[in-house]
Amino acid sequence: MISVGVRLAAFNLKQIANLTCTDELDLYSIGEKKVALFCCIPDADTSLNYLVGMIYSNLFQTLYYVADRKYHGKLPIPVHCIMDEWPNVALPDDFDKLLATMRSRAISCSIIIQNIAQMKALFKDSWESLIGNCDEFLYLGGNEKEGHKYVSELLGKETLDTNTYGQTKGRSGSYSVNFQQSGRELLTPDEVRLLDNRKAVLLVRGERPILDEKYDLHKHVNVKYTEDGGAPPYDYAKAPLSHEDVTIDTRRLDDYELLSAEEILGREQSF
């Protein structure tokens, strides 16, 4: 009981209770029609990160259920989760297993991290399998030594053909040609560290590595609708609900009470 009271203490806040008392996300429809669901939380305040973790857990469970029970294993509309600030959000306990099995159900994830160390901290024994389950690896640059080494190893080596010519002049002059092959890293860790900030390294399964220029978002045709393009900040409070006819009975919010650990102990001792 103490553990339950501690874990659910956040839901004793009226704002959180109002937010979670009624389902208005309609998670079942994701995968059946084109829809975008934005989970926006402040990057400087982690106190509400557990809400996004709950959404992820419910979303994956719902999508798996719909795909398996209704559409024989595959959603009609592919679902792509862009998981920015991935290490800072409470993830499902079996996320590594989800990542390995979601592809067959037309579900995919883009895991966005600052460095490899963040992934190692969360999945000490299985972090490499997370990367291995991703068909694409995009490196935008960084200043982490282990990351430089890891990217260099992923890129592999290249073969260098060397021709050496030698000539000896004189009465008994000679001429020789020596051909040899040698290997070197496609990009050494130092070269990865010094990568131009305008460049990115892309690794696609079954394809050769690609070094290309990053896309300038300010050149996008719809940048004018964002704050970077001069548009006013988006007001999430005025965003339309997924269900326009949803009604929330706020009277029942006062019908429950969450007790702290001290209060529970006090009541047990009184008995």
TrEMBL record:
Annotated Gene Ontology cellular component terms: plasma membrane
Species: Anaerostipes caccae
PANTHER family named among the record's database cross-references: CONJUGATIVE TRANSFER: DNA TRANSPORT
Family matches, as Pfam families: T4SS-DNA_transf
Protein name, per record: Type IV secretory system Conjugative DNA transfer
Family: Belongs to the VirD4/TraG family.
Family annotation (InterPro entries): P-loop_NTPase, T4SS-coupling_protein, TraG/VirD4
Principal location: membrane
Keywords of this entry: Cell membrane, Membrane, Transmembrane, Transmembrane helix
Cellular location(s): Cell membrane
Membrane topology designation: Multi-pass membrane protein
